[in-house]
Automatic annotation (TrEMBL):
<protein>
    <recommendedName>
        <fullName>Cytidine deaminase</fullName>
        <ecNumber>3.5.4.5</ecNumber>
    </recommendedName>
</protein>
<dbReference type="InterPro" id="IPR002125">
    <property type="entry name" value="CMP_dCMP_dom"/>
</dbReference>
<dbReference type="InterPro" id="IPR006262">
    <property type="entry name" value="Cyt_deam_tetra"/>
</dbReference>
<feature type="domain" description="CMP/dCMP-type deaminase">
    <location>
        <begin position="1"/>
        <end position="128"/>
    </location>
</feature>
<comment type="similarity">
    <text>Belongs to the cytidine and deoxycytidylate deaminase family.</text>
</comment>
<keyword id="KW-0479">Metal-binding</keyword>
<dbReference type="GO" id="GO:0004126">
    <property type="term" value="F:cytidine deaminase activity"/>
</dbReference>
<dbReference type="Pfam" id="PF00383">
    <property type="entry name" value="dCMP_cyt_deam_1"/>
</dbReference>
<dbReference type="InterPro" id="IPR016192">
    <property type="entry name" value="APOBEC/CMP_deaminase_Zn-bd"/>
</dbReference>
<dbReference type="InterPro" id="IPR016193">
    <property type="entry name" value="Cytidine_deaminase-like"/>
</dbReference>
<comment type="function">
    <text>This enzyme scavenges exogenous and endogenous cytidine and 2'-deoxycytidine for UMP synthesis.</text>
</comment>
<keyword id="KW-0862">Zinc</keyword>
<keyword id="KW-0378">Hydrolase</keyword>
<dbReference type="InterPro" id="IPR050202">
    <property type="entry name" value="Cyt/Deoxycyt_deaminase"/>
</dbReference>
Amino acid sequence: MDQEQLMDEAKKARKRAYVPYSQFKVGAALLSGTGVVYHGCNVENASYGLTNCAERTALFKAISEGGKDFQAMAIVADTAEPVSPCGACRQVLAELCPGDMPVYLGNLDGDSVVTAVNDLLPGAFTKEDLDHAE
Ligand SMILES: O=c1ccn([C@H]2C[C@H](O)[C@@H](CO)O2)c(=O)[nH]1
Ligand SMILES: [Zn+2]
């Protein structure tokens, strides 16, 4: 599955966004090592802070269903520039995906940029930091 196909999967996921408060729909698609695509949309809540972003929805779905060896993630929103994932999602990506995994950021106009997990969160706090606790 190439970048364009994974972006199309993210666009499909975006349609399911539950966004009664922001009306800002985001979709994500995460490709696993076995070729399975895990889809995620943002899911908001009347208690705003409980909102789950599209990226974390896809990641948590994938882990809970046994997905592994993640190959790439595509993220799309209706933004002027390709969407920029929030800090919480960058941290969860750093936890669960390889540092060199490509992340495709896009918008509905077809603009896209390719980045990588490490570039989204240089110096991430990781399990290695915990290993050195005294
Ligand atoms: O990369 C992003 C950025 C924002 N949101 C969601 C959270 C909230 O529902 C809405 C506005 O921030 O967009 C995502 O899902 N992913
Ligand atoms: Zn986020």
